[in-house]
Design a protein that fits this description.
Order of helices and strands: EHEEHEEHEE
Structural class: alpha+beta
Radius of gyration: 15 Å
Oligomer: single chain
Helix content: 25-40%
Distance between the termini: 6 Å
Strand content: 25-35%
Length: 155
């Protein structure tokens, strides 16, 4: 492994890219980081792309909610793996579409708003890192995407 990195550094760099848009959209970012987690072997540019996709999707989901908009980003260590979760309090994902969200070109966005490739690409990138990306959603309450990465992925 040539790129053992602190995942928080990549998260913060990604949030910095979206900082203005997050603030102008009145989205509160809550950082719930466990700084005791080990560094991971990742390609920083690829992992930043995954984080950016998840943040942008959360922004989109939170656009038309009538409540205070919040995105909680958490890191924790569980069963020898680093977990990074992105939990929003948006409308959630409908049960009839949740099983399709990682499929290429699947989108719930209006034409011109998205290609349907963000989650598919993110899924592929995480898989290359020997990890997985999971989603939990309660329709009407919000969604949580969790990236699970081994500490020693062969990247």
């Amino acid at each position: 492994c040539k790129n053992r990195l602190d995942i928080h550094t990549i998260l913060e760099a990604t949030l910095e890219i979206r900082e203005f848009l997050l603030k102008s959209s009145q989205i509160e970012i809550v950082r719930d980081y466990n700084h005791e987690i080990p560094w991971v072997c990742v390609d920083p540019a690829q992992m930043q792309q995954v984080f950016l996709n998840l943040i942008i999707n959360a922004e989109h989901a939170l656009q038309n909610t009538g409540r205070n908009r919040r995105l909680i980003i958490s890191t924790f260590f569980d069963k020898g793996q680093v977990n990074i979760s992105f939990r929003d309090n948006g409308p959630g994902i409908s049960p009839d579409t949740i099983n399709s969200i990682f499929n290429p070109f699947f989108t719930t966005k209006e034409p011109g708003e998205g290609t349907g490739l963000g989650l598919s690409l993110s899924h592929s990138i995480v898989a290359i890192h020997n990890g997985e990306i999971k989603v939990e959603s309660e329709f009407g309450t919000g969604s949580c995407f969790t990236i699970v990465l081994p500490v020693d992925a062969p990247v």
